[in-house]
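Backbone shape codes
____________________
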Amino acid sequence: MENNKKKQPFDSSGIAGRTFDFDDYNKDDEVSSGLAETHEQMSDHYAGRGDTVENRDSEV
């Protein structure tokens, strides 16, 4: 029998307890630093400046 119910989107905010906020760039705690760094990495990747072999040694 086939299940025709749509899968509900997964709410990942419960895993870390919170999500990125731009104030995380100015905070000193480990979670804020990690969220800010991950946000920066994803922003760079999305903008096409990801860490690839082609641009690893070039300046952005």
